[in-house]
């Protein structure tokens, strides 16, 4: 049980029923995950991470069972990413099409078996928002951006190439990389394929922004986006920020933290002047 850091000292873990249920499940070998995020999530150990993950999965599942919550989340995602593209002087129409196709696909019950099969092939242990949206899609995407192919890194950081030339070349490189990945897909028009459609649109802007290849204002927006995402992740694994007592309590806390962060992002994007 955690005992080494300041958070642990101020938290009575014995009173956290959901956390302790997670500990028992972990000790029984029932909490599996494809990739450890213990350090990134601010956890004391693998056991601490797994125990918290147990409750977080249940809480996210409860949120997914609420149509209004999911509709609000989908709408926020659509607005925020489209506004980010606008700040990069890009028309979001193509993004809207890809995003709406993805949402239509994942909300169609007839596709659920296909989605589960695709996720299972990627060692995703649970089809909930943590494992699919945050762990598989968002965190893996940021990891890819942190260690891009050498050709992309060299291109973005080359100060002798114009921004428009960088963007054009970067789009071609990303298209080539995703094309290779598509060829490996067993399901050609499934969940991962729809995700690649969105990635192909967003990746160049995010790469340019996070690597400093864009103007200062857009770079700051991309960094702010990343900070909000990682701040949220740290909060939901922090027993001083959320209640690991009951699934209901944790779900309420996660929902509030999630939408608070998304509102901050939306306000930031609205308050920043769009480029002419």
TrEMBL record:
GO terms for biological process: mitochondrial fusion. Keywords: Membrane, Mitochondrion, Mitochondrion outer membrane, Transmembrane, Transmembrane helix. The keyword Transmembrane helix applies. It holds the Pfam family Miga. Belongs to the mitoguardin family. One of its GO terms (cellular component) is mitochondrial outer membrane. InterPro entries: Miga. It comes from the Eukaryota. It is found in: Mitochondrion outer membrane. PANTHER family: MITOGUARDIN. The lineage of its organism: Eukaryota, Metazoa, Ecdysozoa, Nematoda, Chromadorea. It comes from Meloidogyne incognita (Southern root-knot nematode worm). This is Uncharacterized protein.
